């Protein structure tokens, strides 16, 4: 083998090894994602799930059934808002889908008709998507418990605020009552003294008048 041929051989070999390594990493990520999913259809919530490892899937803005024109199954309001995490997303309502992120992009649909053909688009271009296992979603019961907890916390906060307001108003009334009582005691103590002083002046004035008459 010539020196030039050997030089061409080694870069080509390194490129093949790099491509093989990247393929192995991609396969490992897909296996990890599959291990974190449940059955492809959940009888409890009647879910059907699809996934895509296409990098363009993170820009998905539309999911619909190719065979019907009854409306979109999911649409994205703004590309500036990232896809939500599946672990913090509520299950979709009937005949609707949820698109979320859990290492790869998932489309989680509920109560779809048989034979539906899911199409995902990202800014006008179709994204490769296939039926898969479902990511872990909070159950409806978990959301109900969370809602009840939030309501209980709100009620507790309102009651605590009312107690604080009641204590504050009661303290103000007590202070006002105490101040009025103290003022009354002071007035009661001062008034007789004023009257005595007035009596003494009256008495003194009377003597002077008597002396002047004499």
Short description:
With 214 residues, the protein is α+β, with helices and mostly antiparallel strands. The protein is built from two helices and nine strands, in the order αβββββββββα.
CA-based gyration radius: 42 Å
- In terms of quaternary structure, the protein is single chain
Poorly predicted segments: 34-42, 193-203, 208-214
Strand-pairing-aware structural class: alpha+beta
Shape estimate: elongated
The percent range for helix content is 40-55%
The whole-number mean of residue pLDDT values reads 75
How many domains make up the coordinates? 2
- Largest sheet entry: 5 strands, antiparallel
Proportion of strand residues: 15-25%
Tell me the distance between the termini.
158 Å
Strand segment tally: 9
| Number of helices in the DSSP assignment | 2
Secondary structure elements and pairings:
Elements: H1 3-35, E1 41-42, E2 47-52, E3 62-65, E4 74-75, E5 96-102, E6 104-110, E7 118-122, E8 125-127, E9 130-132, H2 140-213
Antiparallel strand pairs: 1-2, 2-6, 2-9, 3-4, 3-7, 5-6, 7-8
């Amino acid at each position: 083998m010539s020196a030039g041929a050997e030089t061409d051989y080694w870069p080509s070999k390194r490129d093949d090894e790099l491509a093989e390594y990247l393929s192995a990493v991609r396969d490992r990520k897909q296996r990890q994602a599959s291990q974190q999913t449940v059955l492809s259809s959940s009888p409890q919530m009647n879910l059907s799930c699809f996934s895509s490892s296409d990098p363009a899937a993170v820009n998905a803005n539309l999911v619909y059934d190719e065979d019907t024109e009854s409306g979109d199954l999911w649409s994205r309001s703004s590309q500036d808002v990232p896809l939500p995490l599946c672990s913090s997303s509520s299950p979709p309502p009937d005949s609707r889908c949820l698109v979320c992120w859990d290492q790869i992009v998932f489309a989680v649909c509920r109560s779809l008709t048989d034979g539906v053909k899911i199409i995902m688009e990202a800014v006008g271009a179709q994204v490769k998507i296939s039926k898969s296992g479902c990511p872990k979603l909070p159950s409806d019961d978990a959301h109900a418990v969370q809602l009840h907890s939030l309501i209980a916390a709100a009620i507790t906060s309102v009651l605590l605020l009312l107690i604080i307001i009641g204590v504050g108003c009661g303290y103000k009334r007590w202070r006002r009552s105490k101040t009025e009582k103290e003022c009354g005691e002071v007035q009661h103590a001062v008034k007789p003294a004023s009257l005595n002083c007035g009596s003494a002046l009256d008495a003194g004035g009377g003597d002077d008048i008597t002396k002047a008459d004499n």
